[in-house]
What we know:
A: 251 residues; alpha/beta; Rossmann fold; 4-stranded parallel sheet; 14 helices; 8 strands; C: alpha/beta; 6-stranded parallel sheet; 7 helices; 28% helix; 23% strand
Amino acid sequence: MTDDAGVSTAVQLFPTCLGDVLARQTVDDTERVLTALGISHSRPSGTTCCGQPAFNSGHDHPARAVAKATLRALDDGSDEPILVPSGSCTSMVRLHWRELFHGTPEAEGALRVARRVRELSSYLAEHTEALRALKPTLAVRVGYHDSCHMLRELRIKEAPRQVLATIAGVELIELASSERCCGFGGTFSGRYPEVSVAMADAKIDDLEFAKIDVLVSSDPGCLMQLAGRMSRQETPVRAVHLATLLCEALA
Amino acid sequence: MSATREDVGGTPLPPGWAQPAHQPDAFEISTTTFEQRATETMARPFARRAIANATDHAAALTTARFVGIDHDALRDKARQIRAHAIANLPDYLDQWIDAAEAHGTIVHYAADESEARRIVAQICRDEAVTRVVKSKSMASEEVSLNSALEAIGIDIYETDLGEFVVQAMGDRPGHVIAPILHRTKDEVHALFSTMAGRELPNEAEALTAFARDRLRHAFLTADAGISGGNFLIAETGEVLLVTNEGNGRLTTALPKIHIALVGIEKIVPRRRDLAVLLPLLTGHGTGQQITTYVTMVAGPRREQEPDGPERMHVVLLDAGRSALLGGEFEEALHCIRCGACQNVCPVYRQVGGHAYGWVYGGPIGAVLTPLFRGQVEGGELAHATTLCGACDDVCPVKIPLHDLLLGLRRRRDEEGCVPRSEQLAFALWGQVWSRPLLYRASTAVARGSLRVIARDGVLSAKAPLLRRWTAGRDLVVGRRRS
Amino acid sequence: MTDRASFLAAIRSTPRGSDPGLLDRSVAPDAPTQLRDGEHRADRLQAEAESVSTVVHRVVATEVGATVVGVLVAAGAQRIALTEDLAPFADAVREAATTAGLSVVGYAEAASKRAQAGALDATVTGCLAAVAATGSIVTAASGAGRAGALIAPNHVCVVRDDQIVDGLHELFDGDVLAEAGSIFALQSGPSRSADIEKVLILGVHGPGNAHVVIVAPD
């Protein structure tokens, strides 16, 4: 199914493991936004995790085993885009599965899936007209956190900002530290908790933080880190996923 | 004939080094962990603030330096020069040696650190050297040259202001370019006042003047000058030195002997290639268009020249470098030691150079240390990064640091250097999450447990499996809106 | 002891990495160190040198002696050395300096004893070339010696307009370096350090007071 502009209007959604455990709200909100846009969506059954935690720790065997399950679930013969509400997981599937499955029977399937995955905000940025027509409204001052893999691997910087700009009442305040790593780094956050927390503070202590109500990002991993530290510090700023903010603006 | 990549039909080459490059010296093995060393620096508020400020400042200067220039194209050219030089390393070294010897340079060959120390010590004995002035050299840090020379009774004066402080404090440089980044003026003031035997004014200018006087005396009385080298020019047999203080050139000018200790990877084919590399080295190092002093040395003093040493010795240092050639980590040899990756690294910004435990800090340190020192001493460092990729984006010679770090993590797994608990955890994880049914069951259990132990959607208790996470952070579980 | 043959053999025994080839000579380096179109060399040299705290003087040949000595007197310099490469202007500088009561020696003589060289207040040198795009002077062991341009706290360099090259590219590719001797050196501004809490200090081991006198063509 495609709309007039030739953009596919049926999509699949890969929730990712964080979306299945800690960030279920993000997945729900993504679905609500898609529904509001009239984009039909489905969740392929049998997805698990993209394998990144093990891959980035140097453990290719378990990474491949886990990613294979997700690959089987996603490689269903359709050519519908697969939306991922996580820049980091998108980057893993899009850029690193090729390497992970190189020389295995899954190599071709991995390439097929890699071509279909889309980071959520970059997909939504192609629907800004339709979004605006829904008149999303929310009077908040927003800071945006660019997640590292989305910014420096996928090279997506403008898309989430274009999506934010569709919300009437949103004032986007560019943080000087918007591109600096939040300190999550997957297993890094558990290996070196003190350093990791200090890195989160380096973002949170940004002077401009006083000017914002909400910190928005497109990566549940970064949000888990930043929201966790802000909750501990009782920082009066909410950290939410782009999909959640959009959903609130559409309510 | 040596194998080329084409010979193996595009499949990955076998590792260039199955064993740690060489056995580290017993007295240098770092017995502390990255976390312990990091904690030490992080406990010093000034050091943390200074490191963050200085690196932010340097990174901003670098960005500003290349505004209006096709920086990316320049970096591509630099990468090409370095890749070509390293791919043809033995030929260019051969050419360099011929040219250097033709103008009277005496060339020595150090396969490892201990040989480098022996060679320099022997030169000093042969030349009856008792006092040495030294210009900042990371290669000499690698081989712990100072302690070896001190052991045979030689007086050594580090002449770079920062290194002079490092030496007097018994410290180690905290940054490739800015060695005392982590030290305060007050600390330098206290140190210099003790050395002077009187209270000096606590101002950078007066403190610098004190060091200048001390070191001027050393320059005028030293028997030998020891330097590193920023580049070796194959076509001319020259050694290039860059400094801002002028100590590099004086080191090569005033004593009767000049000894340069240079890593073999510093080779570049032609002088002309410096038109690309120099502005990148200085622009990425200090944000300068060019450093104050750029000196090209081609042998000892010649007849009719008013000053200069009677003899020039160059010690070519391998020490783990050639073992990287042709392998997965060859690109680490492209590094020109500008320090830019340290300046943008969000981890370095918090922990400084000492946390990396050896000579080099930041992303390149996390790569070079395990490669040069082996897994025992440095293997952990590959994990001491978030793989954020900021280093890849800034590197003037486009070293894929992110990929090298990931490769080192893999290597650590393959060599069985990963703690058993981590192995087991990932094996178990792989078993469970590769089966969608088990995955669903495990995530349901996780969700249920988190709901039970969380209070108001927030988990701040020190739950057994989450202790390291929740020490400084909450786990925000949240409640789903219907 | 490792010798040349075994050292190189060990390196040659390693597999060879991929080689993108030598950077083509015809490829302009695109570097910040190239002159921009339509720029006058002497003007760019002045601008770049001033941006790194060099004091620049633009003079005609007959003004060199007085200008140089004016700088020396203002700096309070007493013991002055002149290097070989000052040749075309050496007599004028020596005469003006002597008239002003300064003590003048040849650098070769001063350098014969390190302590003597180390006690100089100022040196006056010529140069082999100057690089417009980087604001640098280029001295050679055969002319200014290795330390002639930086041993004293004050340095004055006399540059003839025809010695100025566009950028690093032109310097390294040109034949001007053929007669450099055992060293050639670029020097751009006063000696500096920011090691102590990032405070910029001029005059660490080299001169803190650096002057360039650009002599216009006749």
